[in-house]
User: Which sequence fits this backbone?
């Protein structure tokens, strides 16, 4: 990771921590804050993928995937903005969906890393268990805004901490001959 990338990673982690603390301190406004953040983020990444497709990926093998992903993310972001007044629904669906996918992918990585004797399987196992437990917690307490908000904030703090750790971790430079 380059020095500039390390700095941007730490800045992103700082914003995530500030957002998590805002969610914990203002749980009554947390779902609206999260819904707005989700809709802006989805729209931004959708537009980013679409621009990438138009400038580079349309000439690549498999480049249509960037178009498909960009269209889906952009559409989800615009839809989330359109139903912003239904903040609880957007936030709960987002939290449950993303953490369910994240947990399943972490568990798949655990199997692959353990088979390859990679010591990183333990971290993936913890992340997978944390994601799936958050999904279960959100489903059990689906009517409680405070528990969903605090659960999301705790996961955000964990993710920001992992970002800071990865920014300070030494990475190997691989030279191809």
Assistant:
């Amino acid at each position: 990771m380059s020095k500039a990338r390390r700095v941007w990673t730490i800045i992103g982690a700082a914003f995530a921590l500030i957002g998590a603390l805002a969610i914990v301190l203002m749980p009554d406004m947390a779902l609206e804050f999260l819904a707005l953040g989700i809709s802006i983020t989805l729209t931004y990444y959708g537009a980013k993928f679409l621009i990438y497709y138009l400038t580079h990926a349309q000439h690549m093998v498999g480049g249509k995937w960037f178009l498909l992903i960009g269209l889906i993310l952009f559409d989800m972001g615009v839809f989330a903005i359109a139903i912003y007044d239904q903040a609880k629904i957007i936030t709960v669906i987002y939290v449950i969906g993303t953490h369910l996918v994240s947990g399943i992918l972490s568990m798949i990585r655990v199997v692959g890393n353990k088979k390859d004797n990679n010591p990183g399987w333990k971290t993936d196992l913890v992340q997978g268990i944390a994601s799936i437990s958050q999904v279960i917690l959100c489903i059990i307490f689906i009517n409680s805004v405070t528990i969903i908000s605090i659960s999301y904030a705790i996961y955000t703090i964990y993710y920001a901490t992992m970002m800071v750790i990865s920014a300070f971790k030494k990475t190997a430079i691989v030279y191809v001959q």
